[in-house]
Design goal:
The complex is a heterodimer of chains A (177) and B (758). Chain A has helices spanning 3-16, 28-39, 55-64, 73-77, 105-111, 128-133, 138-141, and strands at 20-24, 45-47, 81-85, 88-90, 95-99, 114-120, 124-125, 146-149, 154-155, 162-163, 170-176. Chain A contains seven helices and eleven strands. In chain B, strand 5 (220-222) and strand 6 form a beta hairpin. The termini of chain B are far apart. Classes of the chains: A alpha/beta (177), B alpha/beta (758). At the A-B interface, helix 4, helix 5, helix 6, strand 8 and strand 9 of A face helix 8, helix 10, helix 11, helix 12 and strand 9 of B.
């Protein structure tokens, strides 16, 4: 399967779990605009540390938007948005893959009401098993601290599906080509 | 309000299923109060699972891989335990192996004391329910809060779980709303699902942020790295592992596999098998202690500077299960609940009836027997052996076989030598199984009963309407008086039909067929038996009709395994010379075909079983296979024009027929010949041989069967219909519920065979 087919499959499955998916060309202003369109310039944004590969991008983001620098635990708990990176995504399941070896990726995206993830268009694999077979991800997956997010926090225990139980109610993924 | 209290008292009071009276009470309760919610939810999981599995292109291979990983891991368990301990301790965590539940609970208690803990937040863990952790901690003045919403509901209601994965599915939204309004004082609205979720979210958020300790289970553990696999939808596991400074993971030793790579097949199988999702919202592959800064939400001063992690591995009977040749297989279970959701009986009853003190459903009995007591597994009687669960188990556990063994173990204990001596004269069973109840011995002997009944068929016909006779059958044999006893009239074989100029004579002539004249068809469906023989003689010159045997399906269902073994070997010894001469064994009744293809595996040697099963067929499967091989033109053999004018067919396939993959061939053949078919969409008709006759299960059988009879009635509203069923039991149930007499597919086909070449 080529990248475009993988993306199409990803989109189909992400939509099933009500994930908002945006795809943009790799220009910084596009990224900023996408983020702003989601956050509507709220300032209650948490930005976590990033993988080496995304260092430059995240620097630019941090310079361009207002966010909570060095938040207290209370500020973290009350945040509206969190912005984290990812290392891969899975087309068959519509999932985004986060490394939680990164200290804050996990906590920031746990408490906020909505979670925004930056992803690479070229780093979509077909099935979960392909992550473990792919040389690109070998260093990260062997650290054994991974989180696959498929949609957002949800429960069907109270009757029809309700989102946003103990974790973000909405997941946004910005794919960068 | 009173009604609610009665409900609350009930489910815990009959969780202990070691008595018939508790089992009966729980069945009554579930059918009257919980059935609707359970059926709706399990059906939804069932449908979603079926749809999602279609997306797994290598589903069968993946299950084989998953099964092998589990077998190897259980075999190597002592080695893996040792390796796991090293991995945990290398990373600064604490490892504790608990032999019993008391020891496990005490360890957790000690950790709490060490940290002056007051509040504990917990995510879902069946193992902690098994060891009754909450009760122990609460008796030591700790506040334990369940954070999985379903477990939270159970905690508030003080109720037993009714399902392995979704423990509160017995409660509809309305009943949850009622419950919260009763138990909580709040201004917040508590009507809709959104209201209830918002309330629970706020309530639990406060608990997360101030908790001293977080306790989780684990779906799987990698020994090499000390990594946990945790799956969830709500995010409460994320909270429980992140918010408090101390994380205790408690789980059974059967969860351990060698490495993280071994997680992979299970990551791809678990969610689809459980809820029908490709993955749940959050799939964690984490190696605690987490490298995340501590939070300081609560005011209390914490002594602790660094995150602390404890892994408690529970034995509580598992090592013994590992040494038990039957129960060992139950250790492979990954708690997906596919066997619950695909079980027609479970769909009607849920875990309050079809479950024990912790575990429920088809696999539940083995776990109660292994970690609790054998007597607590009595609810496994509700497994009819229909085998619909078998193809859905991600690790290919033979669940009916486990339950048949539990039945055997449960009933071999009671002995009343004098009574039993006389009963053996009446109901022939192996001498080691005399202790089984009269009801079980009666139902283990269909062939014997039918042979006798035929001699008295005139009398039986008169008696079958007598209420005194029905009372007698109910009181002494446990046959529910609402069931009609068949009158067993002797229908003779028909004279063999002659074949002339068969176009495909060479190919057909090469086939040698032994029509295995199964006892059920011979005595309960003689017209179908005759139609089968007619068809076989029409197409094949080499057809032999077997003598009649007690094949062992009835004794197997009752748990009389030694009796069944003897019968299986008698049948095999009879068939062996035919097999040696290249005969194919063709069977009419699907439950007997399934014996040759599946169940005899446990009673013959592997070589004998494979020799037999590779040459055994359900009749329509066989005919279809030969027709395909010969590429026949149906117009040469069947009155296709007449068939086109026939009314639509409503076809109900037999459960075991589906498990041995002999269902599609019937649909295909009937369609090719030109019939218009509506297929039934239920898991099971509810009769299951003797099950529907038994007084204690009649109501369950009818509740299950209602779904099928509704489908038939609805289909009949549109147009006239011929109802076709492949199994004798199914025919009996359909007739009982709708008054309709069904035909076997061969009876239908036989009507349209061209007697002469066209």
């Amino acid at each position: 399967m080529n990248n475009n087919n993988l993306y199409d499959l990803f989109l189909e499955n992400a939509k099933k779990v009500e994930t908002n998916v945006i795809v943009i060309e790799n220009i910084y202003t596009n990224v900023i605009d996408s983020i702003n369109s989601i956050t509507k310039k709220s300032e209650k944004i948490l930005i976590s540390h990033e993988l080496e590969a995304n260092k430059l991008l995240f620097e630019k983001i941090k310079n361009s938007i207002c966010y909570l620098k060095d938040p207290t635990d209370i500020e973290m708990e009350q945040a509206e948005f969190s912005l984290t990176d990812s290392f891969a995504s899975i087309a068959r399941t519509g999932s985004i893959c986060i490394s939680v070896s990164n200290k804050l990726n996990s906590s920031f995206s746990l408490f906020s009401k909505e979670h925004i993830v930056i992803a690479k268009y070229d780093d979509i694999v077909l099935r979960p098993r392909d992550l473990f077979l792919d040389q690109r991800f070998i260093e990260i997956v062997t650290k054994h601290n991974l989180l696959f997010i498929s949609g957002s926090s949800a429960t069907a225990d109270m009757g029809p599906l309700v989102r946003g139980v103990h974790a973000p109610a909405k997941l946004h993924i910005i794919f960068i080509k | 309000m009173n009604d609610n209290l009665n409900n609350v008292l009930s489910t815990k009071s009959f969780a202990d299923k070691s008595t018939s009276s508790n089992l009966d009470k729980s069945i009554k309760y579930s059918l009257s109060i919980e059935s609707e919610a359970i059926f709706k939810n399990t059906n939804s999981f069932n449908t979603n699972r079926k749809n999602e599995i279609k997306n797994i292109s290598d589903y069968e291979e993946l299950k084989d891989i998953a099964r092998k990983i589990k077998e190897d891991s259980i075999n190597k368990l002592p080695e893996l335990l040792s390796l796991l301990q090293q991995s945990i301790e290398k990373r600064g965590g604490k490892f504790f192996l608990a032999a019993t539940k008391d020891v496990a609970n005490r360890y957790v208690q000690n950790v709490c004391e060490k940290h002056n803990a007051k509040l504990i937040v917990k995510s879902k863990s069946i193992t902690t329910e098994e060891i009754q952790l909450n009760k122990y901690l609460e008796e030591n003045d700790l506040e334990v809060v369940e954070t999985d919403l379903a477990e939270f509901i159970l905690q508030v209601a003080d109720e037993q779980p009714s399902h392995i994965v979704a423990p509160a599915i017995h409660r509809s939204r309305e009943r949850i709303s009622e419950l919260f309004k009763e138990k909580f004082e709040t201004e917040m609205p508590l009507e809709s699902g959104e209201d209830l979720t918002k309330f629970a979210r706020d309530y639990l958020r406060k608990k997360f942020l101030t908790a001293d300790i977080g306790i989780t289970g684990a779906n799987m553990i990698a020994a090499e790295s000390g990594t946990l696999l945790l799956v969830e939808s709500e995010g409460n596991i994320r909270m429980v592992t992140h918010a408090p400074p101390v994380h205790i993971a408690i789980t059974g030793m059967e969860k351990i596999v060698p490495s993280v790579n071994d997680f992979i097949p299970f990551i791809e199988l678990l969610a689809p098998s459980a809820t029908g999702q490709p993955l749940t919202s959050y799939t964690h592959i984490v190696t605690p202690p987490l490298d995340i800064p501590l939070f300081s939400f609560s005011d209390k001063k914490r002594e602790i500077q660094k995150r602390e992690f404890h892994l408690v591995i529970v034995d509580n009977g598992r090592m013994q299960m590992r040494n038990d040749p039957i129960l060992k297989e139950a250790l492979y279970c990954i708690r997906c609940s596919a066997c619950l959701n695909s079980c027609a009986n479970f769909q009607q009853l849920g875990g309050h009836a079809f479950g024990g003190e912790t575990y429920s459903g088809g696999i539940g009995g083995s776990w109660e027997a292994g970690t609790n007591y054998l007597s607590k597994a009595k609810f496994s009687e509700l497994c009819t052996g229909c085998s619909k669960c078998v193809p859905n188990c991600p690790v290919k556990i033979d669940i009916p076989w486990l339950n048949e063994n539990l039945r055997n173990r449960l009933n071999k204990n009671q002995v009343n030598k004098l009574k039993s001596f006389f009963q053996k004269l009446i109901f022939p069973v192996d001498k080691t199984e005399i202790s089984f109840s009269i009801q079980k011995k009666f139902f283990s002997n269909f062939y014997r009963n039918a042979k006798i009944a035929i001699h008295f068929s005139f009398l039986l016909k008169k008696l079958s309407d007598s209420s005194l006779f029905k009372q007698f059958m109910q009181k002494y044999l446990g046959v529910d008086k609402r069931r009609t006893i068949q009158s067993f009239i002797n229908i003779p074989f028909e004279k063999k039909s002659i074949i002339k100029n068969n176009k495909n004579a060479e190919i057909f002539a090469a086939e040698k067929i032994l029509f295995f004249n199964d006892s059920f068809s011979h005595y309960s469906n003689p017209h179908a038996r005759n139609a089968a023989i007619k068809i076989l003689h029409r197409f094949f010159p080499n057809v032999v009709v077997s003598k009649i045997f007690s094949e062992g399906r009835d004794s197997l269902s009752q748990g009389l395994l030694t009796t069944t073994k003897k019968r299986a070997n008698d049948v095999f010894n009879y068939l062996l010379p035919f097999l040696d001469q290249g005969y194919k064994i063709v069977v009419l009744e699907p439950s007997v075909a399934a014996l040759f293809r599946r169940d005899y595996k446990h009673f013959l040697t592997m070589k004998e079983f494979e020799y037999l099963s590779n040459r055994s067929y359900e009749i329509v499967e066989y005919i279809s296979f030969v027709f395909d091989k010969c590429n026949i033109h149906f117009q040469d053999y069947f009155e296709l024009q007449k068939i086109k004018e026939q009314p639509k067919i409503f076809y109900h396939g037999h459960c075991q027929q589906k498990t041995i993959n002999a269902y599609d061939s019937t649909i295909k053949l009937l369609t090719k010949i030109g019939f218009d078919i509506v297929e039934s969409k239920v898991e099971c008709c509810g009769m299951a041989g003797s099950f529907g006759y038994k007084k204690q299960y009649y109501n369950v059988s009818i509740a299950v069967g209602a779904n099928l009879s509704n489908q038939i009635q609805n289909s009949m509203n549109d147009a006239a219909l011929t109802v076709i069923a492949s199994g004798v039991s199914c025919s009996e149930q359909i007739n009982h519920l709708t008054g309709i007499k069904t035909m076997h597919p061969v009876e239908l086909i036989a009507q349209f065979i061209l007697d002469k070449e066209s």
